[in-house]
Amino acid sequence: MTSQRAQSAKFLARCHDFCRRWDPLENMFLKCIMNEMIYETPRLISSAYIDSTVRLGVAQTLLVVQDNVTECFGRLKCDGVIYRKKYNAFWVFTKALIHFNHRPDWCETVTTRTFPIDNGGLRTHINSEAFDKNGELAFAAYYEACVLSFENHRPQKLATLGYPTENFPTPVFSAQFTRFPAFSCGTTGATSAAGTDVGAAQKDATDATQNDTYFVFEQKIRSSLIDMSQHMNNTEYVKLALSTFTNDYLREHDILELEAHFTGESKEGQTLRVYRRDEDSNTFVYIKESERLVFECRITFK
User: Fold this and answer.
1) Are 214 and 185 in contact (CB under 8 A)?
2) pLDDT tens readout for residues 203-252
């Protein structure tokens, strides 16, 4: 028995020495597997996730994060599938802030880590990050989310839904969300001499000046834009915001940050009007359904 204990002690000492010699990235992984709230998984940047730059798309990054959050919450027994069946409720993202260091290439595999960082009663905040094959941070995301009842669409108290209330991992990205300039349309539209909409044809519209909000285009919501919550998916709003730029401009200018506020729901058959405002390196996009502001975002270029 004494011999067995001595062998066990030597084995533990060797393990401790081995872990101590690991580099910082591997030490980080060791900490991750010790916290069940942290969900880590490889993610292939497939053709479904890329844009015309043949890299991870900006809008598609939201899909990556949504996949990660769904799988993370599924492991914690608090994902949308469980909440739908058990509580007749569903998750909604209310705000998102994504900082891009660089966007991974097509067919590249990144390591993603996603975890909740708090329980604020009616809302929670989530961190998600992706590392490339060299261990470099590709992007980091900070999300705000809440749970709504299918019956009345009112926020539900997270503690009553079995959502974690303590022992959250340390945040890695928790910047404050921005208060955007209030919506005020200074022009009726930015049009060329031929009368066609050029808001999506160049960064600075011909009839608009800096700090001037102008109408760009409108989009009727079709069935393909509707998700399981029976409203337009968050990613579709970001695609509309990016559509206020030409493809050439987006290929030539890298986005540093995207901050999106999802302020209302939009449903099939409704018509959305997209507006834009340029301020130095920032572009603000506002989307309205009738008189309701349902989406606003800030796009900051490098």
Assistant:
1) yes
2) 444 445 567 899 999 999 999 988 877 889 999 999 999 999 999 999 99
- 113-141 tens-digit pLDDT: 999 999 999 999 999 999 999 999 999 99
> Are 21-161 and 185-301 equal in CATH topology?
yes
Fold of 21-161: Thiol Ester Dehydrase; Chain A (3.10.129)
Q: Is the dihedral of CA 185, 190, 195, 201 positive or negative?
A: negative
At 28 the three-state DSSP class reads helix
Where are the domains positioned within the chain? Answer: 21-161, 185-301
Phi and psi dihedrals of 114, rounded to 5? -140, 140
pTM for the model: 0.82
Give the DSSP letter string of 177-220.
PP-PPPP-EEES--B-TTS-B-TTTSSS-TT--TT-EEEEEEEE
Kindly report the CATH number that applies to the domain delimited by 185-301.
3.10.129.10
Burial class of residue 130 (count of CB atoms within 10 Å of its CB; 0-12, 13-18, 19+) = buried
